[in-house]
Specification:
Layout: E1 9-11, H1 13-42, H2 51-75, E2 77-79, E3 95-100, E4 106-112, E5 123-125, H3 129-134, E6 142-147, E7 150-160
Parallel strand pairs: 1-2, 4-5
Antiparallel strand pairs: 3-4, 3-7, 6-7
Helix pairs in contact: 1-2
Length: about 160
């Protein structure tokens, strides 16, 4: 579910809470809903030719796999707090304001662990090509980041926690 960091998964307290809530919900509500779907599908008759039953059993396997992955992730979690990290360079949990030197567009990203990455929320993984290109850089630096579509050039305008 994530990159190997001595077996640890680094999460913010907020993300840990979200994962714990998801796990609770899957164990309580998800399993109950799945049991109901399987029971309904059994009612359709012969299980050897029952597509609904097969689909419900496959969905149950996916649910149990997600539960197992969440449990494994939570067992290896170490909380990181941005207050513990320096503010002079780009590190995990940094908010980085960038200016695209080609389009002059200004955008802000937060660098997070792979488990927290969410491009729609401007949360970029530190292990992505983009995240790796920013790590350790300082305010005022110009960075060139190689991505599948080519090379992007940015100027770092601001770094904050």
């Amino acid at each position: 579910m994530g990159e190997q960091n001595n077996g640890k998964v680094y999460l913010t307290r907020e993300r840990l809470t979200e994962l714990e809530q998801e796990l609770r919900d899957l164990k309580i509500n998800g399993r109950a809903e799945m049991a109901q779907k399987i029971a309904e599908a059994r009612g359709y008759g012969d299980l050897s030719e029952n597509a609904e039953y097969d689909a419900a059993k496959e969905a149950q396997q996916h649910l149990e796999l997600r539960i197992a992955k969440l449990e494994e992730t939570l067992a290896r979690t170490q909380i990181i707090d941005s207050a513990d990290l320096p503010n002079d360079k780009v590190y995990i949990l940094s908010f980085v304001k960038l200016k695209d030197l080609k389009t002059n567009e200004v955008i802000e990203y937060r660098l997070v662990s792979p488990e927290e990455a969410d491009f729609d929320k401007n949360k970029i993984s530190v292990s992505s090509p983009f995240g790796k290109g920013l790590m350790g850089k300082e305010k005022g630096d110009t960075v060139e980041i190689k991505v599948p579509a080519g090379t992007l050039k940015y100027k770092i305008l601001e770094i904050r926690r």
